[in-house]
Amino acid sequence: MPKINMVQAINLALRQEMAKDPNVIVLGEDVGVDGGVFRVTEGLHEQFGERRVIDTPLAESGIMGVSIGMALSGLKPVAEMQFDGFSYLMIPQLEGNASRYRSRSQGLWTVPLVVRMPYGGAVRALEHHSESREATYATFPGVKVVIPSGPRNARALLVAAIRDPDPVVFMEPKRVYRAFREDVPEEEETMEIGKAQVVQEGGDLTVISWGAMSHITRQAIDEVQKRRGAKIEHIDLLSIAPMDTDTISNSIRKTGRCVIVQEAPRSFGVSSEITARINDNVLLYLEAPVKRITNYDVVTPYFGRELKYIPDQQRIERGIEETLEF
User: Fold this and answer.
1) For the domain bounded by 197-325, which CATH number is listed?
2) pTM confidence score
3) Domain 3-183's class?
4) Of 128, 129, 215, 234, which one is the catalytic site residue?
5) Which of 55, 215, 291, 296 could form a cystine bridge with 32, CB 3.0-4.6 A?
């Protein structure tokens, strides 16, 4: 079983699904000849040709509109938005059309498309290149939002997204692209969209994270456990919409304490939704207030300050310890 990084794992998923299903089409800005700005689609143009790996104009709304037409015609487009900060131009097409065809046609039509987009900070990028706006897309009924945290689940979840009959926004934490490697089997592997992963079981406290925050959260948990001997349960959310409320609730029933780690700004984010669901379902099991470790409610700063903006290991450790001591 080879050890590969997330870029290679996503490339593997695309390559295998394209080889298996001739209806899978890749399109986006620079995805073809250049292999993508992060080289995620490298080699696909040479293997599958320009009719299945399509370089598009710099027009996110156009990419989405074409993808919707492809999907309604029987194809399975995988569209890349080069950075999530540029993706807002596609929202009228995604929200106004792709998300609504199933309900609009009473189930007669579905839109099986995937929107891939690198997101998140800590890679010394420029403005509009470092945001974390997963909550924006999760508010659209009919759209699924998936965020992998490592190479193996990225490959498995992208396969699931490509095979899904409805639109999936697949957000790739670029901080993790080449940060580490994992064993990823060559044979086909998929995961269920909407199901969180319990990375580690424990009885003293629940920590919930997703995307790039999951790796740093894992490190923080290890350090706190060494110092305090606490048994901490770690949930990697993986899917923002639909959200695995059952796994979250079951964990809180067991631990009574919860810390949520979110790269996005504090207000109106996924951590707020998780907290609300905990209150709705398992409030009386809580022994401490839910603690949120998040970014601040300001525009993402330039790279000279972004590491002070994004939650780091020390902030996460402190939040865990404060919740344990409450």
Assistant:
1) 3.40.50.920
2) 0.95
3) alpha beta
4) 129
5) 55
